[in-house]
Amino acid sequence: MPRFSSLAVLVATAFAVAAGTASATSLVSDPVQRPNPPDAVGIRLVDVPADLVKDPRARQYIVDSLRPGVTVKRRIEVSNKSDESLHVAVYPGAADIRRGSFVGAAGSTGNELTSWVKPHQLSLDIPAHSRARDTVTIAIPEDAAPGERYGVVWAQVSGRDLGSGITLVSRTGIRLYLAVGGDNPPRARFTVDNMTVGAPSYTPRSTTPVAALWTSPAR
User: Fold this and answer.
1) 200: Cβ contacts below 8 Å, ≥ 6 apart
2) What is the distance between the alpha carbons of residues 99 and 36, in angstroms, rounded to a whole number?
3) I need a labelling partner for 102 at 20 to 30 A (CA). Which of 2, 153, 171, 201 fits?
4) What string of DSSP letters covers 101-118?
């Protein structure tokens, strides 16, 4: 059973999806109703694994090195810093490392890692100037291939401009850095474009062959 150390104070990491910068997601100006400020919602880790307590990343992000078949849970805390009650969506999203920078994908784009990540509560109703906790479960499949995966656990609030119909979205997230170990085969390095079924042409005793066409990745 892994041991955890509580984090008393931790500043949540927010970054823009489209630009991949270290600033909060910008909002479209609303001439009808005042949107929530970009920093209205915060998110932080409550626990850090005891064996990673000296890793500065583990105090801000979900960082783990796990074997296939392992399931872990991480507690998070979402805060409402605004003067109004907020309905906050909690969900995992895809991310990648591009030119040395951690970049979250747009919208609710998923990847292999996000299919393994499940918040216990997908939404939280948080009163003004209050906090609520949630638990994120990460379940590594038995057949998971070794390698690193990246993602984000997002806390998002949405509103609507009553004049233009534009949806206003503000979100902040905790980065996911996951390394899968074990002895499973590596992930396939080709993609199957199409498959065709044809009658045998070389001998009447043969069974129907299946031909697969694949393309190797560009180097």
Assistant:
1) 206, 207, 208, 209
2) 32
3) 2
4) EEEEPSTT---TGGGGEE
